[in-house]
Amino acid sequence: MINDIYDKVLKIVENWCPSKSYSHERRFQNELRDYLSERLNSPNQGFGGLQKKRNIPVETEKGREIKADILVDETVPIEVKRNLKRRHYRGLDSELSDYLKEFNQVILVICGVEREQILEKIKSKWESTRPGLSPTQGKVDVVVKRKENFGKGNDKEDDKSGWSLL
After folding, report:
1. Rounded distance between C-alpha atoms, residue 143 and residue 150, angstroms
2. Mean per-residue pLDDT for 100-129?
3. How many CB atoms within 10 Å of residue 158?
4. Between the CA of residue 149 and those of 15, 43, 99, what are the distances in Å?
5. Which of 90, 130, 158, 161 is most buried, by the most CB atoms less than 10 A from its CB?
């Protein structure tokens, strides 16, 4: 069940496109949080054609209470970075390591890239399964949102009702 929600959250994050370029990372986090909450909690077709609303918590960082930028259903951490630069790399390395100790899987969303070399370094280090761990342990999915696509709308294939936790 946990992998089902992780996979669904990853698909929704991949389909999301920021509505504009923000000057603060927190605004990307808030927009993504709202988008996830809407998609994950929209009514879906249940048995007998009844609309069934879900209540999956999508929370943003609150001091030490929630460590990730966004935490979905207390099991799917999402780290959001804005305008990825070299100075983010060192701290990101530590953050991802900490998340993997607790959650085993992490979604890293990069909204804008200032240095392609840093992006390639992150992908080569984190996108593959960590040595000695199974694919469900130590997995980091890197999702890149390019500035030139901001404001172009979300992917039309995003299906709000195509899944169930039952």
Report:
1. 14
2. 85
3. 14
4. 12, 29, 29
5. 130
| Residue 152: other Cβ atoms inside 10 A | 11
The mean pLDDT value of the chain amounts to 81
pTM of the model: 0.81
Nearby residues of 110 by Cβ (< 8 Å), 6 or more positions away:
81, 84, 119, 122, 142, 143, 144, 145
- Please report, as a single letter, which amino acid is at residue 139: K
Cα distance between residue 151 and residue 145, in whole Å: 11
**What are the C-alpha distances in Å from 70 to residues 3, 50, 146?**
17, 30, 20
Q: What domains can be seen in the chain, in order of their start residue?
A: 2-40+57-147 (3.40.1350)
In DSSP notation, 47-67 reads GGG-EE-----EEEEETTTEE
Residue 115: the pLDDT is 80
